[in-house]
């Protein structure tokens, strides 16, 4: 990409883009960054019991984690998500134009955004090219602000210094000698052309760098010289990036680069010290909230539509307030509260503005400003009593016991539900003004094609029937009394209960829930499903999470200290890709 004779500008950049697409698609980077072959188990070990076909417990084999052998999971090559790309160019270039908003949608695993397996198409390559051109043009518009040495008159030395300093930030590591040479050659060739200036030559260099696999990908080769027993420690710069993208959602700051330069990210104690520093920085608030937004499905909240015939109070302002309530609620627990998991699930308070207060039947709150209010603990408690969860997991004109129950099974209990059979009718029963939702959905338990899974989801979801499709409390439906009785099976807190409050009472006692929450952060921080090799690191995180009193901020530290976070799996067999 860098060594070709200089063509006209657009032709060269498009040629570079084509090569970029091939490199990204084929993984032809400095070193392979994962194990080829095999499928990740998305339910993963350490996530509590799986759900058997009959709803019973399926207990994983007992783990022996007494060995000192480090066994991390894979470290797959993955492109930055759109959120990460926007934050990175903001911090790298001071550009808040959010160009990635126009990119194709990210891939995902479970509730989390990830481009680990998302294909690189010609469209995304073109989008990277167009974004790089605009970003580079804007960044170099005032060339002395971008490169203060531009006025020195020594173009070659200034270009070399700028490439080294900017390249280290863009690639999140120092450039290799060959990378620096190729980029400087590109600058020199461009600069030598008639009419080309330091600014235009440097602009082209930036365009190329911002399309490089080293910029758009998270690449983790590890320190292979220190590899042992099939595991290689990540380099200090790779640890810095893992920390920054998991806690802040963006590139490392200068303190992380300095720590990597000085070899001060090589021990567990080093990593913990940096992680605690980062959590104390206000930038962690947005970064950590991204986890909760994805885990709790807040993006779905902002896109949902409702029938205004059925729910006349619903409008875009109320929809936005639902998402904002959950954000303020989570932030209050993490940064102004006790940060305990139990509080997230069972808190007797929330934050509402005027429209939400009216929806909830709370008096004395008007206007658009949010204020903390106490809840009736016999009706609403915790994050699953909030309209964001209740409305997003409902249909346009009726509730959905299936969606609400499936959410609890998969995201709170870490029990992956299978896809419906090919011959299953997945359309919800039609709304009927003469029956209740429980009556309409009873067909699921009668149909042998559906019953196996629905008896695991519906009895949980029906417990939320005290709340309509936008989250308003109700005692009746179609003038018929609501039956909100529910039941948990295949968990460590099996049994019958009544309503949201009864479900919450069980969830806060569940060790399976606690382990699942730890596993969900583990998956998010590593941007991949946990695999068999992660079983012992996850078990260690879960054990220490319990010792912390299930402190959600401590959980972030614990995952950062784990072997899976600090190492990558390598294949030492003959001929294996390293």
UniProtKB/TrEMBL annotation:
Per the record, where are the segments of Low complexity compositional bias?
A: 422-436
Native organism taxonomy: Bacteria, Pseudomonadati, Myxococcota, Polyangia, Polyangiales
DUF1588 domain segment(s): 380-477
Q: Which Pfam families match?
A: PSCyt3, PSD2, PSD3, PSD4, PSD5
Write the protein's name. Cellulose-binding domain protein
Which parts of this chain are annotated as the region Disordered? 417-441
Tell me where in this chain the DUF1585 domain is found: 496-565
Q: Which domain of life is it from?
A: Bacteria
Residues in DUF1587 domain copies: 78-140
Question: What range(s) does the DUF1592 domain occupy?
Answer: 234-362
Q: Where are the bilayer-spanning segments?
A: none
| Native species | Labilithrix luteola
Q: Where is the DUF1595 domain?
A: 158-216
